[in-house]
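Give me structure tokens for this 203-residue protein.
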Amino acid sequence: MIRLYDFERSGNCHKVRMMLSMLGIEYERIEIDLAKRDQLQDWFVALNPLHKVPVLDDDGLLLRDSAAILVYLVRKHGKTAWYPDNAPAAAEIQQWLSLSVNEVFNGLASARAIVVFNRDLDYATAVDIAHTALDTMEARLKQHDWLALGRFTIADLACYPYAALVHEGNVDLASYPAVRAWIKRVEDLPGYVPMPGLPYPGD
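Here you go.
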């Protein structure tokens, strides 16, 4: 049985919950309460010395980092269309995985963390980075339904949660119609699961 060490309001954890649901995989969910500092407990540090969620335990194989977990799950369960083996396709997806852990996280996620969790970060800087991420996504999605390869892939799953949660960081999506339409497409996929703040409430 897979175990997912999870925080309900984490967008990174939500990506993994979505992937497990889409793959039809049963798992045991273990809540890590970040507000109570569960991530600093010795038993959790033994699982992930970086003190972060999500962590996936697949019969003793421990994986941290949401992007790595997504790649592992689709490869293990045969969804090669969601992360192909050929180099150009994998690289196209990887560009968006990198965006998800850089501009999306440091912009969209950080703006939300400041507003929702009182994180001690620079809000103006986070919003600037957020718009860089959204501008990049909007440019792509004006011409394509999905972020990579002309179809749903883990690129979309990696970028979706914090883009759709951006309203909680008081970042307006009014200037990003293609991003808003893409959010709706993700939320219409079989296996979609909600979380607090999602699905995106719209304008």
